[in-house]
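May I ask for a single protein's sequence together with how it folds?
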Amino acid sequence: MPHYCDTAPSHPVHGPYHDHEYGFPLGDEAELFERLVLEINQAGLSWLTVLNKRAAFRAAFEGFAVDRVAAYGEAERARLLADAGIIRNRLKVEAVIHNARVVRELRDSHGGFHAWLEAHHPLSHADWVKLFRRTFRFTGPEIVGEFLMSSGYLPGAHRDDCPVQARILAAGPAWAR
């Protein structure tokens, strides 16, 4: 199977994500939350489907503003499940709302989502999965692995000979510390 570094760079949608986002460290709460939401919604679908719907997700979840999403009730759930621009899966929508509430709680317990990740780094993939399953919803091994690789907490997003890898290393991902 070809590596993302082999197929993504020349693709009009995958290329920009591969070159400027995938594997770069994230610290901003909304960016981390967005990445978690996108990874959850990718389950069972192609990453291209998710990237093509990214703008619709951003609009539907109000820029991934954690406090706004955490406050969603039945009216917002119904709105999301009726929104053809996003992936209308009840379990995924429920997980996003629940996980926004968890991220909000992480502010009190750890100083935020980024600080929570930093407090638990480094862990093995298996230990990260256990931690995410105890903390969040809809976070199996593949979702957790992709979330952590895409946000700089686990290596493997790029091949060592990929030109993007040098830029990621210069950005100081957690896995390289």
